[in-house]
Amino acid sequence: MHSIVNSELSIPQHQQIAAGSQQPVVVRFFAHLFSYIFHPLFIPFYVCWFIEFIHPSYFSGFSDAGKKGVLISFTINAVFFPLITALLLKALGFTESIYFRSQRDRILLYVTSMIFFFWTQYQLRERPEIPRILVAFMFGVFISSAAALIANIYFKVSMHAIGMGGLVGICFVIMQQNTMLMTWPFSAALLIAGLVCTSRMIVSDHTPNDIYSGLLIGFICQLIGASIQL
Q1: CB–CB of 47/137 below 8 Å?
Q2: Of 7, 61, 105, 128, which cross-links 95 as Cys (Cβ 3.0–4.6 Å)?
C-alpha cells in the first residue's frame, strides 16, 4: 500500500518532467539560460545596480567610485557569501546536489541565506547615507527567505519565482514613490518574471502551485519591507 501511495503521489511530477523533456532542444537551452542568468542569488545584484546607476536620484550624491564601492560591498555580502555557502554545503556533503532539488536540501540554504541577508540590510541600515529603498529591498529579501523556509515545510516553493516576485515587487514600490518613470523597468521586470517562471516549468519539477506561491511570497514581502523601512 505504501508503494502504491508513493507512486500515485509522484505521477504529476513524472508527467511534468516528461512534458518538459519533450520541448525542443532550443527551448530547453534558453530555459536553462534564463534560469542561470536570473538565478535568485543574482537578483540582489541586479536590483542594487539598477538603483545606483539607472535610477536618477537615489544615489545622486554619490561619486562613481562611491557607487562602485557600495555595489561591491553589497554584492560580497548578499551574493558572494550565500553562493560560497551553497557550494560548501554540497562539498561537505550536507546536500545531495548544488541544485537543491529536495526540500530537505533547501533547509540549510534558507537558514544560512537568511543570516547573510539580515546582515546586509543591517549594515545598510546603519549607514545613513544609503537610500532607504535599498534597505527596504534587502529587508524584503530577508523576509522572503524566512517565508520560504516556512513554506518549504509543506511544499517545494520555487526559489526562482520568489526572486522574480521580489524583482517585480521592488519595481512596484519604486513606481509608487514617483521618483522616476517606471514604465519600461516595470514592464521589463514582468517580462523577465514571465520568462523565468515559464523556464522553471520547462526544466524543473516545480508545479504551478510552487511557481505562483513563490511569486506571491516575493512580491508581498517586498511590500512588507517597504512599509516597515520607508
Answers
A1: yes
A2: 105
113 in a structural domain: yes
Query: What range does the domain containing 69 cover?
Result: 28-229
pTM recorded for the entire structure: 0.88
pLDDT by 10s per residue, the chain, length 230 = 444 333 333 445 545 544 555 788 999 999 999 999 999 999 999 999 999 999 999 999 899 999 999 999 999 999 999 999 999 988 888 888 777 878 888 999 999 999 999 999 999 999 999 999 999 999 999 999 999 999 999 999 999 999 999 999 999 999 999 999 999 999 999 999 999 999 999 998 899 999 999 999 999 999 999 999 98
C-alpha dihedral sign at 186, 192, 194, 196: negative
Residue 21 included in any domain: no
* Residue 185, C-beta contacts closer than 8 angstroms, at least 6 positions apart: 50, 54, 171, 174
d(CA 207, CA 211): 7
How many CA within 13 A on the CB side of residue 131? 22
Q: For residue 130, what is its C-alpha cell?
A: 544609503
Q: Rounded to the nearest 10 degrees, how much is the dihedral formed by the CA atoms of 190, 173, 225, 129?
A: 120
Q: Are 185 and 58 in contact (CB under 8 A)?
A: no
The answer to whether residue 135 sits within a structural domain is yes
In a domain, 83, yes or no: yes
Tally of domains in the chain: 1
The three cell numbers of residue 100 are 537543491
